[in-house]
C-alpha cells in the first residue's frame, strides 16, 4: 500500500474493498499472503457456517484444516505464479447431506505489482456435480443401449470421419472404438463400398433430410447387405454438423425374399396351370363348340409354357389311307403357319405308332433323337425341342397336343407333362361331348323341322278356317242384306210411287170440297153435322202434312236400302273402283242405332275429317266389313266404359270416334279410325290380329273380326293394318291401301 496515503483515504479504500467483496455473486474473502482473513462477505460467513464468529485476522486453515494439503498447494502456486486455480471438495452440510464445493484462489497485487494477498471464492457446485454424474450415467446407459443394439450405429462429421460407433461397428471392423473414430469409410472398407457410403452421405448433406438406402459392407463370409437409415443432426445455427446412421444386416432377409420370390414364381406357375385347367373345364361346360375349345386350349398352353408353337393334330381315320392334320395352332407371330399340314402314317411311322399306342414323345434336343425318321420330321418342321401327348376319346377319336420350341433347346419337366396330361383328359371329354352335341343337334333339327312344318300346317288350317268362316259369313250376310234390301225395296217403291198420285187425288178432292163450300154455303144439316164431327178444317190442313211425312219416311227407307246394298255390294263386280267415303257412310248408317242418343244413353259423337280421295280399286264388300269390325269394336269399348261412368262424367268427357282419310302419295290412301276410349293393354294389342283371339265373354265374340280384317287389308289388298294404343289413351287403327289393285300380285 502506498506510504503517502492519508488515514481517511485508507479507510475509504478499505470500505470500497468491502463493498466489492460483498457484491460479488459468490461467497468471497480477501486474505493476506499467509491465508489470514482480512475482509469477508456476509455470504461467505453464512454459506460456510461462520456468521457467528469473528474471523478477521485468523487463518483460513484454522476453520478448514482439511485444506492444509490441497488448498495450501494451490495457495503456494498462486503466490509463486500469480495464477488462478480451482480446487473441488466434497463436504457434509449441516443437514448431513453430502455436497460439493469449489474453491477458486487467485492472487491480488498492489500498484507496484507485488502480491500482497489472495482472494478466495467459494461456490456450491452440488447441482452441477449431480448433473455431471447424471450425464455420465445417461451417457453410460446410452452407450450400453447402442452397444447392445443389434444394428450398427455410428456418427460422422461433415467430412465423413467417424466420431462415435457402437460395439456392432467394432465387431464389423474388428477394431476398437478408439481405433475407428477419426477414420472414414475409405480407411475401413474396399474402394467401391466406401464410394457408395460417401455418395449416400453427400445426398444426406445436400438435402438435409433423412434417407433410407441399402448399402454393402464386408464380413468374413463376404459382402452383406445393410438397410441404412441416415439422418442429419443440426447445430444451434441450423446447420448440419453431424450425420448419424443406423444400419441393419438384411442379408438373410434378402436371401429369404429371393427364395420367396422363387417359391412364389413356382406357386404362380402352378396356379396358372390350375387356372388353365379350370378355364378349359369351364370352356367344356359352357361351350360345346369343339373348335373354340381346341383353339382356347392351344392358345392357353402356348402362353402359359411360353412356347414358340403349340398345335392340335387330328387323326382322320375314316379315309384311305388315314392321315394326320393340323387343325388348331397358336404360335409366335414371326413363324409361318402350319394349319392344314397333313401327313399319312407311313411318313411318320414311329410317331404315328406311339400316338396310336397312347404314348407321348418327349425330346429335349431334336438333333440327339436316335430315331432318324422322327429326327428328320421335326427338323423339317424347324423344331429344336418338342413334347407331344396323344388324346384318345371314348368315342374313338384320336388327336395329339404338340408343344414345340424353334429357337433353342428346352428341358421338359414332369410338371409340364402332367399339365398336358390333364389338358388331354379334358379335351377328350370335350370331343366326346361335342360329338354327342352334334348328334343331338341333328336330331333336334329334324324334330324342329317337323315342328315347324306342323306349325305352318296349323297356321294354314287356321287361316283356311277363318277364310271359310269369313267367306260364309260375308256370303250369308251379303245374301241376307241383299234379300232384305230387295224385299223392302219393292213395297217401298210401290208406296213411294203411289204417294204422288195420292197427293194429286187429295188435292183434287180438297179443291172440290172448297168449291162446294163456296157455292153451297148452307148444306144439309146431316152434312153439317158430319163436317163438325170430322173437323173438316183441321183435316184439310193436316192431310198434306201427313202425306209429306209419309214421303219423308219413304225417302229414309230408300236411303237405308241403298246403304244396305252399298254395304253388301252383291250387285257389283268383285273388284271395282268405288268411293271410299260412301262405304264408310253406309257402315255408319247401319250402325246408327248403336251410336245415336237415347233417353237412357248418351250417344257417341262421330267426327269426320274426310280428305279429297280419288276412286279406289278394292273388294268393296270385304272392305266395308273391315270398317264394320273396327267401328263395332270402338263402339263396344266406348259403351262398356260409359256404362261405368256417371252422366256428369260423360258430359265432361263425351265418347268420340274420329274418322280421318287422306291421300298419302300417288299410290296410297290412309284411313285412321280413332276413339278416346280406355285403350288396349300392350299384351292384348300384340295379339289383336291372331285368329280366334278375343277378350269378350263367350257368346259375344268369335275372335275373327280383326283377324279377318287383317287378312282383307294385308293379303287381299296388299295394304297395312296397324293399331296404336296405350292403356288410358284410346286406340287408333291405321288402314293403308293402294289405289290400284289391277296388276298387283296378291297372296
Automatic annotation (TrEMBL):
Residues 85-137, 211-262 form the PAC domain. CDD domains: HisKA, PAS. This is histidine kinase. Its EC number is 2.7.13.3. It comes from Trichocoleus desertorum GB2-A4. It comes from the Bacteria. It catalyses: ATP + protein L-histidine = ADP + protein N-phospho-L-histidine. NCBIfam families: sensory_box. Residues 121-148, 253-297, 437-474 form a coiled coil. InterPro entries: GAF (IPR003018), GAF-like_dom_sf (IPR029016), HATPase_C_sf (IPR036890), HATPase_dom (IPR003594), His_kinase_dom (IPR005467), HisK_dim/P_dom (IPR003661), HisK_dim/P_sf (IPR036097), PAS (IPR000014). SMART domains: GAF (SM00065), HATPase_c (SM00387), HisKA (SM00388), PAS (SM00091). Keywords: Coiled coil, Kinase, Phosphoprotein, Transferase, Two-component regulatory system. Residues 483-741 form the Histidine kinase domain. It is an enzyme of class 2 (transferase). Residues 138-184 form the PAS domain.
Amino acid at each position: 500500500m502506498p506510504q503517502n496515503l492519508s488515514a481517511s483515504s485508507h479507510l475509504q479504500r478499505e470500505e470500497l474493498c468491502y463493498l466489492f467483496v460483498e457484491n460479488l455473486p459468490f461467497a468471497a474473502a480477501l486474505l493476506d499472503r499467509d491465508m489470514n482473513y482480512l475482509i469477508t462477505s456476509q455470504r461467505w460467513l453464512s454459506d460456510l457456517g461462520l456468521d457467528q464468529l469473528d474471523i478477521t485476522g485468523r487463518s483460513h486453515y484454522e476453520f478448514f484444516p482439511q485444506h492444509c494439503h490441497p488448498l495450501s498447494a494451490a495457495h503456494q502456486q498462486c503466490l509463486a505464479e500469480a495464477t488462478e486455480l480451482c480446487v473441488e471438495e466434497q463436504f457434509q452440510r449441516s443437514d448431513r447431506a453430502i455436497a460439493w464445493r469449489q474453491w477458486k484462489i487467485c492472487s491480488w497485487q498492489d500498484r507496484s505489482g507485488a502480491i500482497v494477498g489472495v482472494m478466495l471464492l467459494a461456490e456450491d457446485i452440488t447441482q452441477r456435480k449431480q448433473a455431471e454424474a447424471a450425464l455420465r450415467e445417461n451417457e453410460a446407459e446410452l452407450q450400453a443401449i447402442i452397444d447392445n443394439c443389434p444394428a450398427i450405429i455410428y456418427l460422422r462429421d461433415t467430412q465423413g470421419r467417424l466420431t462415435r460407433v457402437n460395439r456392432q461397428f467394432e465387431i464389423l471392423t474388428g477394431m476398437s472404438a478408439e481405433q475407428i473414430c477419426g477414420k472414414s469409410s475409405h480407411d475401413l472398407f474396399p474402394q467401391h463400398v466406401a464410394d457408395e457410403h460417401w455418395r449416400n452421405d453427400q445426398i444426406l448433406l445436400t438435402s438435409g433430410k433423412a434417407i433410407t438406402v441399402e448399402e454393402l459392407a464386408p464380413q468374413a463370409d463376404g459382402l452383406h447387405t445393410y438397410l441404412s437409415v441416415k439422418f442429419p443432426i443440426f447445430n444451434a445455427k441450423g446447420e448440419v454438423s453431424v450425420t448419424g446412421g443406423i444400419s441393419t444386416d438384411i442379408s438373410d432377409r434378402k436371401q429369404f425374399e429371393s427364395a420367396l420370390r422363387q417359391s412364389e414364381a413356382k406357386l404362380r406357375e402352378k396356379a396358372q396351370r390350375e387356372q388353365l385347367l379350370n378355364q378349359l373345364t369351364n370352356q367344356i361346360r359352357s361351350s360345346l363348340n369343339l373348335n373354340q375349345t381346341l383353339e382356347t386350349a392351344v392358345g392357353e398352353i402356348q402362353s402359359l409354357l411360353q412356347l414358340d408353337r403349340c398345335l392340335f393334330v387330328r387323326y382322320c381315320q375314316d379315309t384311305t389311307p388315314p392321315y394326320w392334320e393340323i387343325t388348331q395352332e397358336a404360335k409366335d407371330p414371326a413363324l409361318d403357319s402350319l394349319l392344314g399340314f397333313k401327313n399319312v402314317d407311313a411318313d411318320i411311322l414311329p410317331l404315328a405308332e406311339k400316338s396310336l399306342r397312347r404314348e407321348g414323345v418327349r425330346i429335349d434336343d431334336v438333333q440327339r433323337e436316335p430315331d432318324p425318321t422322327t429326327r428328320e420330321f421335326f427338323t423339317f418342321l424347324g423344331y429344336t425341342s418338342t413334347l407331344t401327348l396323344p388324346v384318345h376319346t371314348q368315342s374313338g377319336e384320336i388327336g395329339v397336343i404338340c408343344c414345340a420350341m424353334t429357337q433353342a433347346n428346352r428341358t421338359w419337366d414332369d410338371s409340364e407333362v402332367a399339365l398336358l396330361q390333364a389338358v388331354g383328359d379334358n379335351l377328350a371329354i370335350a370331343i366326346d361331348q361335342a360329338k354327342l352335341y352334334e348328334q343331338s343337334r341333328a336330331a333336334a333339327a329334324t324334330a324342329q323341322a317337323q315342328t315347324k312344318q306342323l306349325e305352318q300346317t296349323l297356321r294354314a288350317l287356321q287361316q283356311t278356317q277363318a277364310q271359310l268362316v269369313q267367306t260364309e259369313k260375308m256370303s250369308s250376310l251379303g245374301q241376307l242384306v241383299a234379300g232384305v234390301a230387295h224385299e223392302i225395296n219393292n213395297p217401298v217403291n210401290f208406296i213411294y210411287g203411289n204417294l204422288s198420285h195420292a197427293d194429286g187425288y187429295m188435292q183434287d178432292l180438297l179443291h172440290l170440297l172448297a168449291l162446294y163450300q163456296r157455292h153451297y154455303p148452307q148444306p144439309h144439316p146431316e152434312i153439317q153435322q158430319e163436317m163438325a164431327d170430322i173437323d173438316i178444317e183441321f183435316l184439310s190442313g193436316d192431310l198434306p202434312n201427313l202425306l209429306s211425312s209419309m214421303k219423308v219416311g219413304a225417302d229414309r227407307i230408300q236411303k237405308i236400302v241403298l246403304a244396305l246394298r252399298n254395304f253388301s255390294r252383291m250387285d257389283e263386280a268383285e273388284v271395282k273402283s268405288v268411293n271410299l267415303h260412301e262405304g264408310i257412310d253406309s257402315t255408319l248408317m247401319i250402325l246408327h242405332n248403336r251410336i245415336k242418343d237415347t233417353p237412357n244413353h248418351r250417344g257417341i259423337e262421330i267426327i269426320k275429317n274426310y280428305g279429297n280421295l280419288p276412286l279406289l280399286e278394292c273388294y268393296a264388300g270385304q272392305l266395308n266389313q273391315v270398317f264394320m269390325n273396327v267401328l263395332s269394336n270402338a263402339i263396344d269399348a266406348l259403351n262398356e266404359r260409359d256404362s261405368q261412368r256417371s252422366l256428369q262424367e260423360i258430359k265432361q268427357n263425351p265418347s268420340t270416334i274420329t274418322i280421318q282419310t287422306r291421300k298419302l302419295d300417288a299410290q296410297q290412301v290412309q284411313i285412321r279410325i280413332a276413339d278416346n276410349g280406355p285403350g288396349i293393354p300392350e299384351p292384348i294389342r300384340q295379339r289383336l290380329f291372331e285368329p280366334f283371339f278375343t277378350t269378350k265373354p263367350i257368346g259375344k265374340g268369335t275372335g275373327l273380326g280383326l283377324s279377318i280384317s287383317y287378312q282383307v287389308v294385308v293379303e287381299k289388298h296388299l295394304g297395312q293394318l296397324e293399331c296404336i294404343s296405350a292403356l288410358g289413351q284410346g286406340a287408333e287403327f291405321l288402314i293403308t291401301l293402294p289405289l290400284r289393285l289391277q296388276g298387283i300380285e296378291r297372296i
